[in-house]
Design brief:
Blueprint (H helix, E strand, L loop, with lengths): L4 H10 L5 E6 L12 E7 L5 E5 L13 E4 L4 E9 L1 E4 L13 E2 L2 H6 L1 H11 L18 H5 E11 L2 E11 L4 H16 L2 H5 L4 E3 L2 E6 L10 E2 H6 L10
Antiparallel strand pairs: 1-2, 1-4, 2-3, 5-9, 5-12, 6-7, 6-11, 8-9, 10-11
Length: 241
């Protein structure tokens, strides 16, 4: 079995460098690593042995099929993807007639409605989305589906501006390609999925009703990580709360 290239590839895929391991029992009659010891995979050799950097300083390799051990799941981290919001409101003229098209609110006015907008977003969440949020509808069998445990829309104040946020709980590290795939999915949910219905529902505020769009057709609309937002010239000087 160990000479089988498919088996070797499987082991290397499962136990790539950096994978955390917890030892259950080592089949070594001389100087085994104590049970319960944790360590980090260094590499897998051509014989399929998993070379380790154990936390106790030792480096004895694991032999799959002889030693008992388990992977330690990476801790969940929060990844936030930011996008501009558009907040609009229909206005009445001096004769009491409503405008045919809504007017976009300025940043200060939109920010004042943060609590109402957040409450409306929370109200949109469906019971079946409790665990994974909008990742429930992600059907690709890939690294994004495996690593991104949940996705929920929210809003956040960035400097003096209110922005939409796709808040993701991620297990492990996303590659640049996976981040691009996740952004594409979030953009779809903002425009045609969650956001399409949300932007059509009025949100009651003290002086009437407002409408909120997570997506717009403006060429400057984009989805950014926190690092990208911090480095953006358009958003220069903004501070994260």
């Amino acid at each position: 079995m160990r000479n089988n290239p498919n088996w070797l590839k499987f082991i290397r895929d499962q136990y790539s460098p950096g994978t955390r391991i917890r030892l259950t029992q080592m089949d070594d009659p001389y100087a085994p690593i104590p049970s319960g010891t944790e360590g980090t995979v260094d590499f897998v050799d051509d014989a399929g042995q998993i070379h380790m950097k154990w936390d106790n300083g030792r480096s004895l390799a694991l032999i799959p099929g002889e030693d008992s051990f388990s992977k330690i799941a990476p801790s969940l981290q929060t990844l936030k993807l930011y996008m501009p919001l558009t907040v609009t409101q229909y206005e009445q003229d001096e004769w009491g007639s409503w405008d045919e098209y809504p007017s976009e609110l300025n940043e200060d006015t939109a920010l004042a409605y943060k609590d109402q907008i957040l409450a409306a977003i929370l109200k949109e969440r469906m019971p079946e989305e409790t665990e994974r949020g909008l990742m429930k509808y992600y059907h690709e069998n890939d690294g994004v589906n495996e690593k991104v445990q949940s996705l929920f829309f929210t809003v956040e104040q960035i400097g003096d501006r209110l922005m939409g946020v796709a808040e993701c709980r991620v297990q492990g590290d996303l590659s640049n390609v996976e981040i691009a795939q996740l952004k594409e999915y979030v953009a779809g949910q903002a425009s045609d999925g969650f956001g399409e219905g949300f932007e059509q529902r009025p949100i009651k505020v003290s002086d009437g009703e407002i409408y909120v769009s997570l997506w717009n057709s403006d060429k400057n609309w984009s989805i950014m990580t926190q690092e990208e937002l911090s480095n953006s010239q358009q958003m220069g000087g903004l501070q994260f709360g």
